[in-house]
Amino acid sequence: MKTRIWIILQIVAFAVSSFGQGRVTFNNLVPDQAPVTIRTNQGGFNPSDGPPGAFVGSMYTATLVFVNGTITDQSIFDASNPIWVADTVFYGTTGNGADGAGFFEGGDPQVFGQTSLIVTFQILAWFNGGGQYTSYAQASAAGHNVGLSVLVPAQVTFPPGPAATLTGLQPFTVGIPEPSSASLILLGLLSLAIFRRRHKANQ
Predict the structure, then answer these.
(1) Alpha-carbon span 58 to 46, nearest angstrom
(2) Element (H, E) at 142
(3) Taking CA 149 as the corner, what is the angle to CA 146 and CA 153, rounded to the nearest 5 degrees?
(4) Counting Cβ atoms within 10 Å, is residue 85 exposed (0-12), middle (13-18) or buried (19+)?
(5) Alpha carbon of 83 to those of 37, 47, 87, 98, 192: distances in Å?
(6) Measuring CA to CA, how many Å separate 124 from each of 21, 62, 174?
(7) For residue 70, what are the domain limits?
(8) Which of 7, 34, 167, 193 is deepest in the core (most CB within 10 A)?
């Protein structure tokens, strides 16, 4: 029985990699609201990017990345060369959130590079400066606010199956990362930037 189940899973995994890529609902509105805000600790955020505790607005971008398989450790995720899925800007103006700030809606992008049914997603939020910065790495290197969501494993099936949802996503904050963690994250994002440029060039 176990052998039969294993064979079926292998066939399904092969179908995912051979015949199409899945989709994911890229927002922090459903299934559970998970707004993004600016840190409040002294020296933990860039005051030019908004006041402490504010909900981030359209001067911030959300980036969705993933790693194949189930990953629960951030250092392992970073070292696994996360694959870029999509970017989208936040609603509203950084402030009290009355205009939708803190939330974003990026549609249902395809998950290119998927080779397993279960993948682990993460959202990177970063100050874009109205277009001055085009990536998390650039914003972080320039001393602006950046932040990471929790790791979110999800089952991603190919069409006509429904788009996966980021179930388990939690509210998180942006700010200035600690020097040690910033270095590790920037190293991991170098390969992400390369993949993103190649993907866009092939579209």
Answers:
(1) 16
(2) none
(3) 145
(4) buried
(5) 25, 31, 12, 33, 6
(6) 22, 6, 9
(7) 2-202
(8) 34
What residues pair up with 6 in beta bridges, in sequence order? none
Q: Which residue bears the tokens 């199409």?
A: 20
How far from the centroid of its chain's Cα atoms is residue 106's Cα? 11
3-state SS assignment for residue 70? coil
How far is the C-alpha of 164 from the C-alpha of 158, rounded, in Å? Answer: 10
DSSP code at position 130: T
For 84-113, the DSSP string reads: EEEEEEPSS-SBSSTTSTT--B----B-TT
Phi, psi of 49, deg, nearest 5: -95, 5
pLDDT tens string, the chain, 203 residues long: the values are 556 655 555 555 555 444 458 999 999 998 889 999 999 999 999 999 999 999 999 999 999 999 999 999 999 999 999 999 999 999 999 999 999 999 999 999 999 999 999 999 999 999 999 999 999 999 999 999 999 999 999 999 988 889 999 999 999 999 998 765 444 455 555 555 545 655 555 55
Tell me 7's DSSP state: H
Instruction: Give yes or no for a contact between 137 and 196, defined as CB atoms under 8 angstroms apart.
Output: no
pTM for this model (two decimals): 0.81
Number of domains in the chain: 1
Neighbours of 137 (CB within 10 A): 21
Residue with tokens 């190649």: 198
